[in-house]
Write a structure and sequence with these properties.
- The structure holds 2 protein chains of 2 kinds.
- Chain A has one domain: Immunoglobulin-like.
- By secondary structure, chain A is an all-beta fold.
- In chain A, a hairpin with a 4-residue loop joins strand 6 and strand 7.
- Chain B is of the alpha+beta class.
- Chain B folds into 2 domains: about 30 residues, no CATH class; about 110 residues, SoxY domain (Immunoglobulin-like).
- Chain B is extended, with a radius of gyration of 21 Å.
- Classes of the chains: A mainly beta, B alpha+beta.
- Chains A and B meet through strand 3, strand 4 and strand 5 of A and strand 4, strand 6 and strand 7 of B.
């Protein structure tokens, strides 16, 4: 079960400052459990950002991104009501898409 | 009685079901630059990202803490006003695998990214812009970590 990504997109002139908070354990693969076994890496590996259904940025992530990843970026050519979508997939094949409107 | 034919038919149907449901996850890895994320040093990770020369540059602005009391969440921002940026990268030199994140940006976004990274220990943090002409421009800052985290 994946949990929702929170997206806040705030218009400033013709740009939108977007702050994203994803929910994911981002297990690094470095930790060991109580029995001494390595806990396998489990993390978001790709992120796609869409502005009105057009891909404007993609990202590749390793396990070094913090748990419940925070991301901030700025869209160009934005207007109030534009749709911003954030898609992620992880190294176990889970994927999630959330979207919000530019306010 | 289940014949061999039945067994084979069930096995191939199951494989087909697994493939379409995405549980055979090898395709999910295809788009990620695995060598870059597995590399153990900053130069190796950057070489896996592209062959361009690595040059320190005042045009790359790296914003992060001087001291972090929580190595599991260190804010790192990389930005530049230069045109022609293909990717922005964040690396932490002393992490088990230094490459933390790589952002492929289009002209539709500013060359300005902020994330939070894990730092295992006090280390140099790199913000790198891979330019359209292949150059890797970077800024580097030492961040002291009083309580580390990579695990």
């Amino acid at each position: 079960m994946t949990e929702p990504t929170r997206i806040r997109a705030q218009l400033a002139g013709d740009k939108a400052n977007v702050r994203v908070m994803m929910r994911h354990e981002m297990e690094s693969g470095q930790r060991k459990d109580a029995a001494g076994r390595t806990i396998p890496a489990w993390h978001i590996q790709e992120v796609t950002v869409l502005h009105n259904e057009r891909t404007v940025m993609t990202a590749q992530w390793g396990p070094g991104v913090s748990k419940n990843p925070y991301l901030q970026f700025t869209l160009r050519g934005a207007k109030a009501g534009d749709r911003v979508a954030i898609v992620w997939n992880d190294n176990r094949g889970a994927t999630r898409r959330d979207e919000a409107a530019v306010a | 009685m289940q014949t061999r034919r039945d067994t084979l038919r069930h096995a191939s149907a199951l494989a087909g079901l697994l493939a379409t449901s995405g549980l055979l996850a090898s395709h999910a890895q295809a788009a990620v630059n695995k060598p870059a994320f597995d590399a153990k040093t900053v130069p190796d990770a950057l070489r896996a990202m592209g062959p361009g020369a690595l040059t320190e540059s005042r045009d790359i602005v790296l914003t992060t803490l001087d001291v972090s009391e929580n190595g599991s969440e260190v804010p790192v921002a990389v930005s530049t006003s230069l045109a022609g940026v293909r990717q922005l990268l964040v690396l932490v030199e002393k992490n088990p695998a230094p490459l933390v994140a790589a952002f492929a940006i289009s002209d539709a976004v500013e060359a300005n990214i902020a994330i939070r990274a894990k730092m295992a220990q006090t280390s140099d943090v790199y913000g790198v812009a891979q330019m359209a002409d292949g150059r890797m421009l970077f800024a580097r800052k030492n961040v002291k970590v009083t309580v580390g985290s990579c695990g």
